[in-house]
Design goal:
Layout (H helix, E strand, L loop, with lengths): L1 H24 L12 H11 L1 E11 L10 E12 L4 E6 L12 H8 L4 E10 L6 E8 L3 E7 L2 E10 L1 E4 L2 E4 L1 E5 L4 E13 L3 E3 L6 E10 L1
Antiparallel strand pairs: 1-2, 1-13, 2-3, 3-4, 4-5, 5-10, 6-7, 7-11, 8-9, 10-11, 11-12, 11-13
């Protein structure tokens, strides 16, 4: 838990420092000043594009207020960012969602045994006055669905993501940044809810998932 909390705090402090500087410094009467032009965004995304290697962090806990977190989940993960469609592509280790499922043991065990699934996040760039980082909002491109097997049949699961949540009494937002000098990519996303077979909602204990990686190959 200490590892997860420490890394989450470092990422949040860095992202908030760059994004808040932008929000506080811009003219409130000109909302467009918070966004890049299409040409500017294309140039930035070309800089960001490539393959990254790093780790995905999340946390195992029994409830949002549980002070005794059982353990951290840390997994190696590669992410590809493409400039032409401003997408971050990676294989989501869906078994991590099992850590947050409560009240349905069969579904929890089936999800825990599932293989990683491809997912795409679109990166919406936001202006920042930082000279060191580009700031963005990661938004799932499509509905994220995968199948699990139990009770002798296949079942569809759809996962939705939140744009913000309260985590340990703190507001957490889905957001990210790219380090211009060290070529690092960090972003936070928030699994919110599972729907089983389009009818049954499976409760999730919302805990941030956080990726941090370094570019190893240019696109």
């Amino acid at each position: 838990m200490r590892t997860f909390t420490k890394i989450l705090a470092m990422v949040l402090i860095s992202i908030c420092a760059t994004s808040l500087t932008s929000c506080l410094g811009d003219n409130d009467d000109n909302n467009e000043s918070n966004f890049y032009t299409r040409e500017e965004a294309a140039g930035i995304l070309k800089t960001m594009s490539g393959y990254y290697t790093g780790k995905l962090y999340t946390e195992c806990m029994a409830s949002p207020l549980d002070a005794e977190v059982k353990k951290d989940s840390v997994m190696n993960l590669q992410v590809r960012v493409t400039a032409n469609d401003s997408i971050a592509h990676f294989m989501m280790p869906v078994k991590l969602f099992a850590n947050a499922i409560t009240g349905n043991e069969k579904v929890r065990e089936a999800v825990a045994a599932s293989e990683s699934q491809a997912i795409d996040f679109q990166l919406f760039l936001m202006k920042s006055k930082s000279n060191d980082y580009y700031v963005f909002l990661p938004v799932p491109m499509n509905k994220f669905k995968f199948n699990v097997f139990y009770d002798g049949a296949s079942h569809e699961i759809e996962v939705t993501f939140a744009s913000s949540t309260i985590y340990r009494y703190t507001n957490i937002y889905a957001q990210g940044e790219y380090g211009k000098t060290n070529r690092t990519l960090s972003f936070i996303f928030l699994p919110y809810q599972m729907v089983l077979d389009k009818t049954t909602t499976v409760s999730l204990v919302t805990s941030p998932m956080m990726y941090t990686g370094t570019k190893i190959v240019e696109e």
